[in-house]
């Protein structure tokens, strides 16, 4: 095939040239709708975000943003706001708690599903369903299950003697963050399972056979064969999950709304509230810009880890 | 080994039960009478003689549920159509060529996944008010495209990467133009990719909440995810209606998911993980 196409390009010079130019023009033409979409819907809005974050004063008269004076006032005001720092630590706990637990569950279920026991095909499909459920519906499911008075979760806890009376998980500021982490884990872990499972299935079985011949125990096989085989896919899916949980507001918005007493107000929600509840667009865009910078840093770090692939 | 198999199977069953319980409990709540539901020690098993579908009738007869569902569908279909067309063309170009434009667009598509929805909402809110497309389907569709175009473009690039270039080259040596080769040879082979992208974008649009909540203000244009919130009152929640609404609202998602599942392991983990 390659030899034929190589012969094809060895034709008359001017034909080659126009063919190459047609190719380039076509490649650009196909890209134009996407370029237009990205420029109009992402690049220009992002530029505006940055611009607003640098403008002093209330950005209420939207048509005249560029008339406002420039400065870093929004950034310094945000950095001296105790709630900003509280939201930062809330985000850190929320992301680390949700993705950490989802990773453990995802790893366990992927290893189990990889054993190809009878019925694993149907399990694989069933376990993935939460991934397809809208965050808002996930929220109402868990609001109901973990309801203080009539929640079945509390009823179960009472049955086994772990709880007496009621506990409103989402309404108590001591447990609210934990309460929003639970549905987030439930929604996050299927994608992790799926990804690790795909990586597991790409490890050649001969390597396991060879390890067995060498007398490797289960733990050794995991450390020397399984983990190197899934490391890069795991790093990638952890990165994607962290970015998703860091950025999304749906579950928290529809369960606690950031409350009680800001206990579940993550940075993403802080941005939303500053912008659309208090109309402090400057502060909101300043925090949002810092979030993007942080997400970029995180993805570069985990991306480097993901590239250290073995197979 | 035998005991290990049994234990693995039990563990897997446990995971599956915990994972599926919220669905089960949502449906149970919707079909059981109020006194069985608002109980401090609810029965985990259904009482078949007392099953009722009042709540399902209720959401259709006594709420704007059908309107919300129709709005979600309109926005979903429009978002999917525009996103998939734009992304299929871009995915092909990103896969086959690597000029400056391709590389910068590729980088921009990746970076756009780092943007929180609550942040991009701010400039969109401003621009929409200037352009007069605040509170319109068009505005919401465009907002959804900020998420779906990057996602679907990378998904499609992944699919095109796996179609050998030699196929188009052979067609062109036989006299086909580049465009004909794309239309007659490559696109038919990319059908599973287009199907996966379609379902994937549709699912995302169906689930979307924060754009719709902020960019749509008229009740008659409200989508499902936002409308359902109205069952959650200030003082009390109508759990049965809410659970019936939740059950019906995830049916399309589950059906779409059934279509997507065969492509998942193959397609998503390679091409689309970058697009999640």
From TrEMBL, chain B:
Residue stretches making up the ABC transmembrane type-1 domain: 69-260
Keywords: Cell membrane, Membrane, Sugar transport, Transmembrane, Transmembrane helix, Transport
Transmembrane segments: 6-31, 74-95, 107-131, 137-160, 181-203, 239-260
Keyword Disulfide bond annotated: no
Record Gene3D superfamilies: MetI-like (1.10.3720.10)
Cleaved signal peptide residues: none
Name of a matching Pfam family: BPD_transp_1
Topology with respect to the bilayer: Multi-pass membrane protein
Protein name: Maltose/maltodextrin transport system permease protein MalG
Similarity field: Belongs to the binding-protein-dependent transport system permease family. MalFG subfamily.
Primary role: Part of the ABC transporter complex MalEFGK involved in maltose/maltodextrin import. Probably responsible for the translocation of the substrate across the membrane.
Places the protein is found: Cell membrane
InterPro entries noted in UniProt: BP-dep_ABC_trans_perm (IPR050901), MetI-like (IPR000515), MetI-like_sf (IPR035906)
Predominant location category: membrane
């Amino acid at each position: 095939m390659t030899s034929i196409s190589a012969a094809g390009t060895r034709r008359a010079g001017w034909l080659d040239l126009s063919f190459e130019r047609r190719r380039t023009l076509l490649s650009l033409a196909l890209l134009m709708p996407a370029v237009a979409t990205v420029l109009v819907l992402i690049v220009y809005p992002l530029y505006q975000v940055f611009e607003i974050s640098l403008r002093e004063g209330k950005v209420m008269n939207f048509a005249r943003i560029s008339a406002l004076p420039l400065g870093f006032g929004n950034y310094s005001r945000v950095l001296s706001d105790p709630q900003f720092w509280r939201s930062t630590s809330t985000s850190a706990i929320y992301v680390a708690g949700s993705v950490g637990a989802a990773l453990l569950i995802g790893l366990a279920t992927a290893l189990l599903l990889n054993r190809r026991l009878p019925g694993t095909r149907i399990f694989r499909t069933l376990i993935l369903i939460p991934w397809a459920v809208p965050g808002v519906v996930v929220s109402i499911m868990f609001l109901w299950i973990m309801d203080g008075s009539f929640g079945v979760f509390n009823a179960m806890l009472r049955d086994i003697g772990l709880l007496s009376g009621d506990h409103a998980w989402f309404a108590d500021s001591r447990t609210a963050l934990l309460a929003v982490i639970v549905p987030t884990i439930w929604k996050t872990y299927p994608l992790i399972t799926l990804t690790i499972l795909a990586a597991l299935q790409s490890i050649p079985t001969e390597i396991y056979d060879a390890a067995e011949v060498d007398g490797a125990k289960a733990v050794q096989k995991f450390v020397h064969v399984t983990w190197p085989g899934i490391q890069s896919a795991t790093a990638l899916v952890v990165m994607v999950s962290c970015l998703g949980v860091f950025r999304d507001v749906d579950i928290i918005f529809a369960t606690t709304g950031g409350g009680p007493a800001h206990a579940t107000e993550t940075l993403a929600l802080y941005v939303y509230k500053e912008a659309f509840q208090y109309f402090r667009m400057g502060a909101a865009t300043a925090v949002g810009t810092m979030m993007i910078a942080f997400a970029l840093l995180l993805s570069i770090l985990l991306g480097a880890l993901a590239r250290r692939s073995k197979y | 080994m035998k005991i290990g198999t049994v234990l693995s199977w039990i563990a897997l069953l446990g995971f599956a039960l915990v994972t599926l319980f919220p669905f089960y409990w949502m449906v149970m709540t919707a079909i059981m009478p109020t006194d069985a539901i608002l109980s401090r020690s609810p029965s985990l098993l259904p009482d078949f003689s007392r099953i009722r579908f009042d709540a399902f009738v209720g959401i259709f007869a006594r709420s704007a549920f059908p309107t919300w569902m129709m709005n979600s569908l309109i926005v979903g279909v429009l978002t999917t159509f525009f996103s998939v067309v734009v992304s299929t063309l871009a995915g092909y170009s990103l896969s086959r060529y690597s000029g400056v434009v391709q590389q910068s667009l590729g980088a921009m598509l990746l970076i756009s996944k780092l943007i929180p929805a609550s942040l991009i909402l701010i400039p969109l809110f401003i621009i929409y008010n200037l352009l007069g497309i605040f509170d319109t389907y068009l505005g919401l569709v465009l907002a959804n495209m900020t998420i779906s175009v990057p996602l679907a473009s990378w998904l499609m690039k992944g699919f095109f990467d796996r179609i050998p270039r030699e196929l188009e080259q052979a067609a062109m040596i036989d006299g086909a133009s580049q465009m004909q080769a794309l239309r007659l040879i490559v696109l038919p082979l990319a059908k599973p990719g287009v199907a996966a992208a379609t379902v994937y974008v549709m699912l995302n649009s169906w689930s979307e909440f924060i754009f719709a909540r902020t960019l749509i203000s008229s009740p008659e244009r409200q989508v499902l995810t936002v409308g359902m919130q109205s069952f959650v009152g200030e003082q009390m929640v109508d759990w049965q209606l809410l659970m019936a609404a939740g059950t019906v609202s995830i049916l399309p998602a589950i059906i779409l998911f059934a279509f997507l599942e065969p492509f998942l392991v193959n397609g998503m983990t390679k091409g689309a993980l970058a697009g999640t």
